[in-house]
Amino acid sequence: MDENNEKYQQMLSTSLELFAKFGYKKTTVEDVATSINMTKGNLYFYVKNKKDLYEKTIDFALNQWKDFVNDAVNKEKDVVSKFRILAQKSIEYIENNRTVQTILINDPSIFTLSSTEDRFYNTNVSAMNIIKKILEQGIEEKMFFPVDVEHITEYLFSVYIMFLIKSYVKSDNSSLKKMFSEGLELTIRGLLLK
Predict the structure, then answer these.
(1) Half-sphere exposure (Cβ direction) of 53: Cα atoms closer than 13 Å
(2) Domains and CATH numbers, the chain
(3) Contact of 88 with 50, CB cutoff 8 Å
(4) Rounded distance, CA 32 to CA 43, Å?
(5) Which pLDDT value is given to residue 175?
(6) pTM reported for the whole predicted model
(7) Residue 173's pLDDT band (cuts 50, 70, 90)
(8) β-bridge partners, 192
(9) Is 143 helix (H, G, I), strand (E, B) or coil?
(10) Type and span of the H or E element at 34
(11) What pLDDT score was predicted for residue 182?
């Protein structure tokens, strides 16, 4: 199956909207099929069952998020700017995407800090590779303190996940923007050699 095929992409996009609007329990495979003028049987060409549809839909949403961030990072040359843009765009994407916000609020199990429990491990590793490349570039250019890139990548990704949980799952918005801004600057200062 070609995952770049237009019908497959339309199925995932539509199911993302439906899962956000009605939740996992109330959304059916038939709802998704009907919404894209497909039979339920044809939809099963792409997915095994409702759970598989949901998992592929969330993976699709996470990949869109990662691609948005990666595109913004790749427009920057300066490694500090790349790091700053990485953090800012990662938050901006969710702030501006109510559908993804709703999915994250309704399914906090999407977030995990354990790789053995991570249903979206491959996508998250791909996202962490963006962080890893920036750290490697900073170290190579002698801008960043030489750190254990693997461990610091995992640490930074974990901090990001905890921030998302605090922002969207626990809904503690009292001073999140200030905390994010201060935390980002502290992290950058901690990485810089000079």
Answers:
(1) 29
(2) 6-191 (1.10.357.10)
(3) no
(4) 8
(5) 67
(6) 0.88
(7) low
(8) 144
(9) coil
(10) helix 29-35
(11) 87
The residue whose two tokens read 């998992």 is 55
Calculate the CA dihedral of residues 153, 176, 170, 121 and round it to 10 degrees: -20
Average pLDDT taken over every residue of the chain:
90
Name the percent of the chain lying above pLDDT 90: 65
> Which structure tokens are listed for 123?
């996508």
SS (H, E, C) 78-111: CHHHHHHHHHHHHHHHHHCCHHHHHHHHHCHHHC
Q: How many helices (H) and strands (E) does the chain have?
A: 9, 0
Longest dimension (CA), the chain: 61
Average pLDDT over residues 47-72: 96
Q: For the range 153-160, what are the long-range contacts, defined as Cβ-Cβ under 8 Å and sequence gap of 24 or more? A: 153/128, 154/128, 156/131, 156/187, 157/124, 157/127, 157/128, 157/131, 158/113, 159/183, 159/187, 160/87, 160/90
- How far is residue 39's CA from residue 32's CA, in Å, rounded to a whole number? 9
Token pair for 189: 């200062």
